[in-house]
Amino acid sequence: VKMKIELLILDVDGVLTDGTKVYDINHNVLSKRYMCKDFTAIKRFIAAGIKVVMLSGDNFNRHMAEKRNIDFYCSRNKDLSLDKSRYLEVFNEKYNIAIDKMAFVGDDYFDLSIIRRCSSTFCPSDSPSIVKENSHHVLKSKGGEGVLIELYDLFISKNWINEPTEESVADLDKKEISSKEME
């Protein structure tokens, strides 16, 4: 059965990163570690026709997403709620994609609301047991160690997407602010 995913929703911390944050003495986040190959996997998903968005409870990730031309949503609203499931309707409205054509990748307790509502969910191997028990697919990779690479390879191996051309992926890379800043 060919899965038809049109929107890939990514949590950031614990998926694209190992969840570690470096803080200064005033508890401001100084840095996080990302695997660059995961950003290439995101470009490959996009070039293959899947829209990708980031949904995080930490607004620190917004700038990174903007530099990579990825739509970013901070799930922490004015009442400080972390309920990510309410964004399914937002995405349905904004991107005109049915909820059953959305996939989510998350790793932590605060992802359970959206994991329980999506029809296709994935989590890293170092997720808490409750997240693994509620996800449709537990990946072998740990957070920050190639989760998106493994996910992309899974989609290709299952024929859920077709491999895009190298040129289409390279064109996406050239359009990123982060790439332009490297010249």
Notes on the structure:
The chain is of the alpha/beta class and 183 residues long. Helix content is 33%, strand content 16%. The protein has a six-stranded parallel β-sheet with strand order 5-4-1-6-7-8. Helix 1 packs across helix 7. The longest helix has 12 residues. The radius of gyration is 16 Å and the shape is globular. 32% of the residues are buried.
SSE layout:
Layout: E1 7-10, E2 22-23, E3 29-31, H1 36-47, E4 51-56, H2 62-67, E5 71-74, H3 87-95, E6 102-105, H4 112-115, E7 120-123, H5 129-134, E8 137-138, H6 147-157, H7 166-174, H8 177-180
Helix pairs in contact: 1-6, 1-7
Brief rundown of the structure:
The protein is of the alpha/beta class.
